[in-house]
Amino acid sequence: MTYRKMFWLTAALAFGTALVAGFIIGRTVPATGGVDNPELVLPALFGVAGVVAFASWLWWQKTDDLQQQGQLISWWWGGNIGAAVMLITLVVMTGRHSEMSMGAGYVFGAEFAGMLIVWLVWKFRGRGAAE
């Protein structure tokens, strides 16, 4: 199988698993309120997220350095600027302590914590100076 075919196959796998995960989550979690049995649903949905992450990792392994740099830069700058703009907009439109603002703040905090953990792993593996 050619490199190009493998790249598009893994990209379709990653995108397809994300769509399936969205469908499963949409059918499992109600629009308002929580689920009746979170001790069952939460681990199952973490498993679904793990499958999506694995499929995305397969795609990532098929990308070259230039594509990886483009993805990293666009996610870093685009994601952070977009999140900050949305957080500021929600605070202005709904108030500092509204459910929407607090939820957006939690998501922003979780994204930062995830980035910090991955960065620390990268840094302590000694990758900083060589790259």
Fraction of residues in H or I helices: over 70%
Q: What is the end-to-end distance?
A: 31 Å
So what's the overall shape? globular
| Uncertain segments | none
Q: Quick check: average pLDDT?
A: 83
User: Which sequence of SSEs, written as H and E, runs from N to C?
Assistant: HHHH
Structural class: mainly alpha
Which terms summarize this structure?
single chain; 131 residues; mainly alpha
Please, could you describe this protein's structure?
It is a single chain. With 131 residues, the protein is mostly helical. It is 81% helix and 0% strand. It has helices at residues 3-28, 38-61, 65-94, 99-124. The longest helix is centred in the middle third of the chain and has 30 residues, at 65-94. The mean pLDDT is 83.
Short description:
With 131 residues, the chain is mainly α. The protein is 81% helix and 0% strand.
